Amino acid sequence: MAVDLEPSPEVAALAGRTAKFIRDVVIPIEEEHRGVVTSDEVRARLQNAAKEAGVFAPHVSPEFGGHGLGMLGRAAVFEEAGYSLLGPLALNIAAPDEGNMHMLEAIATEDQQERYLRPLASGEVRSCFAMTEPAPGAGSDPGALATTATRVEGGWRIDGRKWFITGADGAGFTICMARTSGEPGEAGGATMFLVDAGNPGMKLVRHLDTLDESLFGGHIELLFDNCVVPEDAVLGEVDQGFRYAQVRLGPARMTHCMRWLGIARRAQDIAVARAADRRLFGSRLGELGMVQQMIADNEIDIAASRGLILQACFELDQQRSASQSTAIAKTFCAEAIWRVVDRSVQICGALGISGDVLLSRFLREVRPFRIYDGPSETHRWAIARRVLRRHDKEAGR
C-alpha cells in the first residue's frame, strides 16, 4: 500500500503561515530575550499574536478552539513552530501543556474538559504533569512510583515528593501520578489526579538549576503533603494511570522531536549562512571539504529525523501502538538534533560560542532531550527487548 506522507494543502498552508509568523513576529522577541522568557505578559503577547495570525493551537479539536490536526499534520506545523525556541510557547504547543491537552481530550470527562482543557487550550492557564520523583522514586522506571494516594472521606489524600516537574511554577493545575495500590516496583496501581493550584497540600519546594532554561515555568520540585482532592479529581479510572500515560507519552515524544527538529534546521541555516559568507585560506568556508562534510551530515540527520517522525506519526494516526517506531524516532532524533546543533557551532567557530547568535543557547536546550521522555539507553533497551520477543515468537519459543 502506498503511503503519502506529504501534508494536505490545508496543513501545508497552515505550516506556511506558521513559518512566516515565526520569522516575522517570534524570532525578534526570541532574540531580544535570548531565547528565555519568564514573563506572563510576554507569553500572552506571543499567544495573542498567534491567534491573530490564525496559527494558535493547531493540535486541539475545533470544539476547543484549535485546528484539529492529527499527528502527521502536527509534524509539519510543529517543526515550523520549533524553528524558534519561543515558537511552541506562542502557538500553545509547548511541553507539558501540549501533551496534557492531548490526554485531557482523550480521557477526561466532559466536566473535566470544561474546567481544565478549555482554559488550557485557550492559553488562559498553564499546567504541569507530576510523575518524576527523586531517587529511588519514579524516573526512567515509572513502576518505582512512590507517591501515594489514600482514600479519605469525600476524596483522596496525596503524599509524596516530585521533582523535574516542568512548568509547575505558575501552573493553574497539576496532573499528579500517585500510587493507589501495590508497592513501588510493581507495574500497576497508579492513578492520575487533577490538583488545582492553591491546594494547601501542594507546595513548591524549589526551582532546579538546570542546563536548559527555555521551558516556561522552569523545572520544579513539588511536595504533596496531606494534599486532599475530591473524588472527581480522578482523571480516568483508579489504578489505570500507567495505561493512560501511554495515551500521552508516545505522541508527546513525537511532538518533542518535531519541535526540536525545527531548532536543528535553524542551527543549520545559521551555519550555512556563515559558511557561504566567511572567507579564509583563499576561499569561502563552505568550499572547504571538512565543512562541506558537516553541512552534508546535518542535512542527512535532519532528513532522517523527519522520516522517522513521519513513520511514527503515521502509525499513531492509524491507532496502532507505535511503541517501537516512537522509541526509535525519539532515540535517533535526540542524538541527531544534538549532532546538527553541535556541528553548526563548530562551523561558526568563535561566532558559534559567542552570544551574537543563539547557537550556544540551542546547544544547552537540546542536550537534555537525550534524557527527557526517557533516556536513550532506556529506549534502546526497550527496542532490543521487542526485537528479541519478535524473534522468539517467530522461532516458536
TrEMBL record:
A Pfam entry, by short name: Acyl-CoA_dh_1
| Record GO biological process | fatty acid beta-oxidation using acyl-CoA dehydrogenase
Gene3D superfamilies reported in the protein's UniProt record: Acyl-CoA dehydrogenase/oxidase, N-terminal domain (1.10.540.10), Butyryl-CoA Dehydrogenase, subunit A, domain 2 (2.40.110.10), Butyryl-CoA Dehydrogenase, subunit A, domain 3 (1.20.140.10)
Q: Name one GO molecular function term.
A: flavin adenine dinucleotide binding
Outline the subunit composition: Homodimer.
**Would the keyword Isomerase turn up in this protein's UniProt record?**
no
- Family affiliation: Belongs to the acyl-CoA dehydrogenase family.
Name it. Answer: Acyl-CoA dehydrogenase family protein
**What region holds the Acyl-CoA dehydrogenase/oxidase C-terminal domain?**
239-388
Cofactor(s), by name? FAD
* Residues of the Acyl-CoA dehydrogenase/oxidase N-terminal domain: 9-124
Which superkingdom is the protein from?
Bacteria
- Which keywords label this protein? FAD, Flavoprotein, Oxidoreductase
Keyword Ligase among record annotations: no
Of the GO CC terms on this record, one is: cytoplasm
Acyl-CoA oxidase/dehydrogenase middle domain mapped to chain residues: 128-210
